[in-house]
């Protein structure tokens, strides 16, 4: 028991006592940028149906926080899971991977 206490105290003294949580990354396309500091990212996942053995495309939309309003509609972006920012926002924009072609 004393060894475990020493490890915990040593970790807290160096500032690394908290557990580093693994955060999920996702890549998707921006489908809306009409809100201020918020984008809607659509992530498409393709999987094989367990019963019918047919490939299914599943689309999920996430609201992500974009502090600088950098991402525009049609951009391919990477988002990371974060703490709740508002009622619907649980993701943050990390980078814009590919810009949408401008006409």
Number of domains: 1
Radius of gyration: 19 Å
pLDDT averaged residue by residue: 87
CATH architecture: Beta Barrel
The count of strands amounts to 5
Distance between the terminal alpha carbons, to the nearest Å? 67 Å
Number of contiguous helices: 1
Please provide a brief summary of the model.
This protein has 103 residues and is mainly beta. The chain has one helix spanning 2-14; strands at 25-32, 38-48, 55-65, 76-81, 91-98. It has a 5-stranded mixed barrel with strand order 1-2-3-5-4.
Can you offer a commentary on this structure?
This protein has 103 residues and is mainly β. It has a single domain, classed as Nucleic acid-binding proteins (OB fold (Dihydrolipoamide Acetyltransferase, E2P)). 13% of the residues lie in helices and 43% in strands. It has 1 helix and 5 strands; from the N terminus they run αβββββ. The chain has one helix at residues 2-14; strands at 25-32, 38-48, 55-65, 76-81, 91-98. The model is unreliable at 1-15 (pLDDT under 50).
Topology:
Elements: H1 2-14, E1 25-32, E2 38-48, E3 55-65, E4 76-81, E5 91-98
Parallel strand pairs: 3-5
Antiparallel strand pairs: 1-2, 1-4, 2-3, 4-5
